[in-house]
Design goal:
Strand order of the largest sheet: 5-6-7-3-8-9
Number of helices: 8
Shape: globular
Distance between the termini: 21 Å
CATH architecture of the largest domain: 3-Layer(aba) Sandwich
CATH topology of the largest domain: Rossmann fold
Strand content: 25-35%
CATH superfamily of the largest domain: P-loop containing nucleotide triphosphate hydrolases
Number of strands: 9
Helix content: 25-40%
CATH class of the largest domain: Alpha Beta
Radius of gyration: 18 Å
Structural class: alpha/beta
Amino acid sequence: MMEIGKQYGPLVLEVDIEEAGYEPGRPRIHNIHFNVSAGELLGLIGPNGAGKSTTIKTVMGLLKDAKAEVKIAGNPPRYAYVPEQPVYYDDLTLWEHLDLAAAAFGLDDDYFEKQATRLLQQFGMEHVRDGLPGGFSKGMKQKMMLMIGFLSEPDIYIVDEPFIGLDPRATKDFLTLLDQERQRGAGILMSTHVLDTAEKICDSFVLISGGRVTTKGNLEDIRSAAGLSGASLFDCFDALI
């Protein structure tokens, strides 16, 4: 949870969305504006169908019917995207997926070997290093997506529903890595339904409902908007939605 007076670094993500959608003339989201600073974890929260995934797709530049300006730090921009649904090649092993990602990120061999080995150990996946992900459980596939995202140590992480399918140990490992990356100076945009965890780890929030921002800010700002002093994020969410 956000520390009072906590100082952040420069902006690593600036999002100004006028409107965006999947078909011309039928926008799904409107007037969504927020920034993420170095070292900040911003939670994107809202009910199903609120527009969280559409917002993330717009940030990623995946929607052609979008009127938006998105600025990502770095030249070239250095970011990692961890999708909600695992994406993988049936004929590549876990290690080969990591190797392919390293090539795409332009990592040198020594750095890749060190990072990949550390992540395999961190997530307890050494035993399936040479396994095909088609035979993995949902949680193991999600771990693979997280490892690929953490591989390059980017300036900004864009993470969509990371806790789905993760067991308690994997969740703890993921949160530990997030904290390490924030200490390093990375910013994180995370969409999640897991409000009790979001309340504990997020510095700030953007609450979306009906394709628009309902409120944003730190937990005290959300409580003020809901008129619920000292309430949990879950109770504020319920009141505001």
